[in-house]
Every structure is written in C-alpha cells, then in structure tokens.
C-alpha cells in the first residue's frame, strides 16, 4: 500500500511530437469505469470527473481530439488509464538556462540562490565563450596522431571574460569578491596506480549564508555552479527580457530550491542534447566521482499531476467538488541509475568507461538534492511507468 500512498491521484503525459498522450487515474480514485468522465473544453482545458472530484488541467499550446476523450478507460491492477490524441496548436518552447542567455556587453549581477544576497555586482563581459565539452581531452587523444598539445593546459578567463562550462561559469576574481565570498581549503587524496597524489581544493562560499557556490580554480579565477547562483540583468532595462522571467523579483515569488534545481538542470540537459547531440550523462561531484547516470529520453513532453493531498475548493453550482486547476508544464523524461545501487554495477562500469557519456560536475549537495528529486518523481508515477528495463524513470519539469 506504500506505493499507492505515494502515487499521484492523476498523472497526465502528453507528447507534442507524437501528438499522443496518456492519462492515469489511481485505482482508489477512479471507482468503476463508468464513473469517470473526460471532456476537453475550449481547446485548452481538460476536465476529468471522478465520483468525488472534478480535476481540471490547463493545457498550454495543445488541444485534445474530442473523440479520444470519449474512450472508455482501460483498467489495470494499479488504476485506470486512457490514451488521448493531441492537437498541437503552438509547440511549447523549452526555456534556456542562464548559460544559454549570458551575452557580451550586458551588465549582470550574480546572487546566491540560497539567501538571495548579491555576490558579484554589475559585471560586464567583453567576451562570453564556451569551454570545450567535458570529454575533450579524450577526444583530442583519439583524433591526434601526436601527443595532445593541450594536455595539462587549463583554459582560464582573463579580466572581463566569462567562460561557459556545462554546469558552471568561470570568471576573474576581483577585489569586490572579498566582501561577499569566503574561501575554504580542503585536502583531497586521490589514488592512482603509480602514486598517491595529494592536492587542495578551495571551495568558495557565500559570506552571508555559508552555502558553497563554487571553487577557486587558481588564485585569480572563480568557478560558480549554475545550480547555486542566480544571474540578474542590470536594472536599466537593456537586458534580455526573457532572463527576467527566470529570476525572482522578491522573496515571496522566488522558486523553491528543489524547483529551481529541477528547472535549471532540465533546461541545461535540453541545451546540451540539442547543440551537441548528447543524451547520456554522468552526474559527478567535483572530485569526478559518478553519483547518477542519466539518459535523456524525451524533450517534447508536457506533464500535469495532482498530488495525494489536493487542496479542494467548493464550487457553488458544481457537484462533485472542483479541485484547484493544474497547469501542464514542459518536462524532460529521463532514465537513471543511482551509482550507489550495487544491483547495477555492471551497467554502471560500462557507462563509466564510455567516452560518449558526458560528465556533468555538480557540488556534492546538489548531487544529493538531485537524487532526492529523481526518487521522489519516480515514486509519484503510476507503478506501470516507474521502470524501463532496469532503469528508473523520472520527469524533470522545465
Ligand atoms: Zn547566501
């Protein structure tokens, strides 16, 4: 019964490219087949009536083919589901991450995502350049018939540069950083076959709330993870308007930490897959230890769900009660393994040796938060959807 208590009451998945969708209704909610009525209203609202409640889903840019809503739900041991046909009126555009939006000669402030304090104020970049992707050294080895000329050479920003990594940015450290950031050295022991190396990693934290935001690469270079910072355009209104939508305007409207992490990583996975055709990722801590192996499956998905504790409002003229409407949102569907899961050691070993699997570095705390987020997403799905072969399935909302 634990499965039922975690599973969402209703789960809707729509695929824009396939023009298909599926609606799941939990066993204890659906009642008998004839108790469930589904109708599409005004081309953008889906009404699902069960014996107890009416659930309403707002659909952005898509409508449902009316005839598909009139099908009788299929029953399984876990509940009812109905297959739907979708009409895409306006495909939903995936939001860009901050890395996709930073531009030259614009003024930005960088804020700690945890407490909202400004850590770097009014930075203007003369160059905003992408760094080579995470496996570039291995690829150079494969393509060059002579030793890698770039081996052991770091690509570092000069003053007024912003270098873009997969999950981080590199900036020049300046005197203003001393007031807002603190540095903490930590010894790291790294075993290799021939020798035991010992080196220091210097983490950089917000002076106000002590959250780790990144690292010091050298004494003049700062690495900030996109999962730990907010980037705010200058107040003169010259910046990209769409960036404003990603950013909090006040504490009350700030995204929760979990939602921010989910949205930031989902957007970044979509960008990397569309620009570099990468679909398999190894999420690693800063020491290069793989924590999660993740396979990006679909990027054209819209999802909507009603959690177990739905807040209901009583409508004057409607019986049964109407629940609060839910907005369907763009999401990515991912398959994943947690590397701590010893059951899948063989597959994990194969992934770790495969250079087409793209490493993505995140701070250890964000790796843990992402694990929690994926496990929670999986447990809220209908049991039928939770696994694909040996992989676990999750949805990350944009
Ligand atoms: Zn802070």
Overall geometric form: elongated
| Spatial separation of the terminal alpha carbons | 31 Å
Q: Largest sheet, described in full?
A: 11 strands, mixed
Low-confidence stretches: 192-196, 237-253, 311-318
Q: Which oligomeric form is depicted? A: single chain
**Rg, Å, rounded:** 24 Å
Report helical residue fraction: 10-25%
> How many domain regions?
2
Tally the helices: 9
> Strand fraction band?
35-45%
Query: What ligands does this structure carry?
Result: zinc ion
- Counting helices, strands and paired strands, the structural category is alpha+beta
Average of pLDDT: 83
By DSSP, the count of extended strands is 27
Produce the secondary structure layout.
Elements: H1 2-6, E1 10-15, E2 20-26, H2 27-30, E3 37-41, E4 45-49, E5 53-58, E6 62-64, H3 66-69, E7 74-76, E8 79-88, E9 107-112, E10 118-124, E11 127-130, H4 136-143, E12 161-164, E13 168-172, H5 177-180, E14 181-191, E15 196-206, E16 212-218, E17 221-225, E18 229-233, H6 241-246, H7 257-276, E19 280-284, E20 290-306, E21 312-313, E22 321-323, E23 326-327, E24 329-338, H8 345-353, E25 358-361, H9 364-380, E26 387-388, E27 391-397
Parallel strand pairs: 5-22, 5-23, 11-12, 19-25
Antiparallel strand pairs: 1-2, 1-20, 2-8, 3-4, 4-5, 6-8, 7-8, 9-10, 9-18, 12-13, 13-17, 14-15, 15-16, 16-17, 19-20, 20-24, 21-22, 24-27, 26-27
The site of zinc ion has 8 residues, from loops.
């Amino acid at each position: 019964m634990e499965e039922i208590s975690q599973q969402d009451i209703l789960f809707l998945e729509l695929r824009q490219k396939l023009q298909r969708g599926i609606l799941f209704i939990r066993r204890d909610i659906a009642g008998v087949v004839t108790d469930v009525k589904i109708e599409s209203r005004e081309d953008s609202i889906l009404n699902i009536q069960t014996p107890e409640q009416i659930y309403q889903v707002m659909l952005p840019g898509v409508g449902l083919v009316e005839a598909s809503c009139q099908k009788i739900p299929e029953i399984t041991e876990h509940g009812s589901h109905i297959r739907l046909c979708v009409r895409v009126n306006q495909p939903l555009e995936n939001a860009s991450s901050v890395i996709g939006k930073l531009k030259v000669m614009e003024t930005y402030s960088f804020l700690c995502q945890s407490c909202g304090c400004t850590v770097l104020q009014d930075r203007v970049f003369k160059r905003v350049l992408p760094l080579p992707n995470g496996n570039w050294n291995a690829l150079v080895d494969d393509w060059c018939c002579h030793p890698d000329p770039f081996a052991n050479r770091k690509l570092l920003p000069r003053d007024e540069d912003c270098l873009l990594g997969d999950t981080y940015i590199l900036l020049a450290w300046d005197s203003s950083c001393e007031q807002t950031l603190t540095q903490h050295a930590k010894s790291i022991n790294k075993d290799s076959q021939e020798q035991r190396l010992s080196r220091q990693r210097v983490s950089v934290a917000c002076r106000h709330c002590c959250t780790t935001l990144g690292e010091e690469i050298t004494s003049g270079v700062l690495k900030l993870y996109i999962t730990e910072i907010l980037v705010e355009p200058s107040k003169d209104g010259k910046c990209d308007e769409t960036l404003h939508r990603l950013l909090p305007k006040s504490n009350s409207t700030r995204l929760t930490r979990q939602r921010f992490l989910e949205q930031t990583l989902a957007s970044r996975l979509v960008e990397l897959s569309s620009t570099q055709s990468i679909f398999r990722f190894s999420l690693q801590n800063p020491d290069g230890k793989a924590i999660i192996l993740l396979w990006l499956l679909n990027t054209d998905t819209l999802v909507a769900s009603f959690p177990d504790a739905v807040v209901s409002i009583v409508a004057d003229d409607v019986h049964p009660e109407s629940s609060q409407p839910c907005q369907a949102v763009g999401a990515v569907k991912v398959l994943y393994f947690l590397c701590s899961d010893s059951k899948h050691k063989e597959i994990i070993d194969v992934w770790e040796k495969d250079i087409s699997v793209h490493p993505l570095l995140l701070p250890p705390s964000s790796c843990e938060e992402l694990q929690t987020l994926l496990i929670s997403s999986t447990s809220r799905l209908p049991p039928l959807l939770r696994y694909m072969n040996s992989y676990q399935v999750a949805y990350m909302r944009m």
